[in-house]
């Protein structure tokens, strides 16, 4: 019995190792993280956690000219704020690092040599002007120039397929710039499988010989991506639709190295609110909504993200999950653990998903209304320096009076600022509507009476005020409108008696007299 038990455990362990789920999010640090990137990270995270897997962050910084200072740290901070932190990556070594491609150059060079030795890659010495001339010649004939089987060995292009080994080495030793291209096979049908789009077939004759190593000595995305995914034991590559055209090359590279390819899933594009074209930062600038999770400060410009605009991470994540995924139910509000439990790549759509700024606002309102007043008070304090010395319990009390009208946490201050500071100005339209010839006398009498009112609660204030109005024999509105104007500075805001109860009778009397002096 004991021997059998040990053997079954061993078999189960081997099976677990073979089926271990490892996914990666691999952004380039060229600027702030777009919500499209966040959605890709989210789907990777959900898939990993659903299958007890590992979510890896890999920084793809091979194009050093486009890298931006601060972008790498921003990516990690953005994922953390969204509540989808990585398990492995820069600063979290899981045994598969380095996790920055710029530190893996020797690894790529080693694998490039394997392809060169196998005759599956070649050196190309073509100057930019020579390639431009070829393109123009093809365009003049109504054709598209493709660097591949039909022209790479004919002598017009300069590469190691037409040069002798000695000449190739001589050019390399002399420092002439060169690239290394992949030798795409001719007359081959490439069978591809995608977990979102199904089975795909590509004719290799339509593909060009992609550059694997650039003239600056750094690998291109294609080589680095495939080598890293293999060495980091990535089981599933879940990435944006824009990489779908590269799938055939990547499959060919896996075959060239003799490696088993991971499973692929290409996510649909996130479209503009109009539904036409891919969502961009320009759309957010034009229509007034964020496209970054947290603020991006380049030193030259500042762009607020969802965090600074008053959104909650759980609302953003819930909204993004529905951009391309459908749980197959009527349920719309999902906590993160519920998203993990429900997520299935089979339910990811092929068609692009339209970004709806009103919908994410709707999600945020739901989450805001379900936050405790204490949590919202903490958020208000973080967003408004003026509140730091104020008792947080008082702030929470005020929040409870106004939050029903808020969609964003940033709305709260505008809805309740008069609980913390007296009006400095008065709304002109409100003043004309509320302040009449008899208003000064009524407000003077009210300020004198208010000092005698029982302010134990807003209800006792309401009762005392109603009795005083009746004794004065005046219309309710003739007193209420100028009173509200005195307390708030406009004909809006929370219940008048809630305001007086919170700020106190003395402050209310001070504000009434201030209005009398200015009106």
Describe this structure in words.
- The chain is mostly helical and 519 residues long.
- Among the domains are: 106-213, Alpha-Beta Complex (Glutamyl-tRNA Synthetase, domain 3); 371-416; 422-519, Arc Repressor Mutant, subunit A (Orthogonal Bundle), CATH 1.10.10.350.
- The protein has helices at 2-18, 35-50, 71-82, 105-118, 128-140, 165-173, 221-231, 247-257, 281-287, 313-321, 336-342, 357-369, 373-383, 392-402, 411-416, 428-434, 439-450, 458-472, 476-488, 496-503, 505-518, and strands at residues 22-25, 54-57, 121-124, 179-182, 189-194, 198-203, 211-213, 236-240, 263-267, 270-271, 296-297, 302-303, 353-354.
- The protein has a three-stranded antiparallel beta sheet with strand order 3-4-7.
- β1 (22-25), α2 (35-50) and β2 (54-57) form a beta-alpha-beta unit.
Count of DSSP E strands?
13
Q: What about the largest sheet?
A: 3 strands, antiparallel
- What's the Cα radius of gyration? 33 Å
User: Structural class, judged by helices and strands?
Assistant: mainly alpha
**pLDDT averaged residue by residue:** 94
Across the major sheet, the strand order is: 3-4-7
By CATH, the superfamily of the domain at 106-213 comes out as: Glutamyl-tRNA Synthetase, Domain 3
